[in-house]
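Researcher: I'd like a structural prediction for the single chain below. Treat it as a standalone chain; there are no partners to consider.
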Amino acid sequence: MSDEQQISGRPVTDEVAIAAKDIDIFAGYLGRLENPDPTVLSEGRGRGLKLYDEVARDAHAGSVLQTRALSIARLEWKLIPADDSVKAQAIAEFVKNVLDMTNMTQAIQELMQAVLYGFYVAEVLWTVRRGAWVPARLITKHPRRFVFTPERELRLLTRASMITGEVVPERKFVVFTCGSSDNPYGQGLGQSIWWPVWFKKNGIKFWMQFLDKFGSPTPVGKYPAGSTPEQKNALMDAIEAIHQETGVTIPEGMAIELLEAARSGQASYEAMCEYMDRQISKRVLGQTATTEGTPGKLGNEESQDEVRHDIRNADADLIEECLNSSLVRWLVDLNFPDRLYPWLVLQTEEPDNMEALTLALEKLVPMGLRVEQAEIRDKLGLSDPAEGVEPEMLLGQDKNKIFEYHLAYGLVTPNEVRAMLGMKPVPGGDKLLPQTKSTPGDAAAPQFSEGKFTPEQQALEDLTEQAIAEAAQAFSDNEEKMLAAVRGAHSFEEAQERLLTLLPDLDADRAAAALEQCLVSGRAFGAYTVEGK
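Model: Treating it as a single chain, here is the predicted structure.
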């Protein structure tokens, strides 16, 4: 076929380099694919993927593998509808509610063991709930129990079918594969971290022998020539008793000396084990800072930690693709006629830097930045205060300082004024008044000659005088009560006590209303004046 014919013709849609043609993994007449994992083939000795169970049992390898798995299992997830239609949104809501009632966190954590083995399998236990097919539970299975056909179909190994395996039902097993899209067995990290674990395990054996040999001195018994076998045996019994007894007896004329072995050099078994642990950390986490870094140290270890985030995000994408192509799709197929498949997304966004956010607000709010308190609470993970809670009941609140701050920077609300005056809040009183703060050098601030008022200033003066008059009228009754209390006292202390006793009976509502109206009107008038100019 000419090049021109190839270009103008239809492309080949079928897979050409199929597994059955792979000379490394096709098992010929057995009708199954063999796992081409070189470590399993050379070190497995018939154990297959059970070989990597020894890796998971290692304290350090198990720790870093768990860290990687939990970094995915802990992520929040959400369902994105297939489109904006009502049907698509209803399907997405259904799938979300179903998965919320399933052991998703546990299933994701256990499926992440595919990172070690290459692939991992979860069986779906279906049930009917309110007329819909839903997974009651996902139970993961060890990959040693499964094989694949040349068509990459999963087969379950049983006593009745130990070579090719039994056919498994559709929509029954979720298979998560890592490291290879061509090889259904995947390419797990066990291939590379098996050897550091093996070297460390055998190195520790020699380390124990070393400690036994060099940790305590070797006793040497000396006996004179002509000693009888009974005397020699008595000396040997005394030597053996040294390790257990606080004192020993030996025949006369014999002696026991302690022989201490000397060694030199800097190499140690501990350094070898630490080196192997670092290699395991690099392979699993992409860095070593998480397990061995210096707390508080910046620079290199902080940049290494970023690499781990990249690996975590990639793992999250792989889990998403696996669940969306299997469990999510099956839920829709079994329960809806419309194939509007939602997309499950693991939320890998980094948390906000709270320290940087706080510093930014401290600088920007005084400059005029308007920020909703609810948004800040969401960033900090704090709940809204309960309705009716007074400011002084809130942790860390100094209402006087906060009010002064809000007043200085135009962040005061009518309800805040009412709270300072001991009055109940009113509906709609939590909206900020327009900001009117201006600095002395602000070009927008009007400049006036000394002793003269502009019409705007004169209006404020009139408003102030009116408020003072109303407040004075409101306080007239209280004034008579206070004067009577003071006149009836025989000492300053008694007058003070009388006034404190009288305080709850004084009427402050009229004065508070007048002051509140004055403050709110003044702010509003000032804002209108500045905006108008």
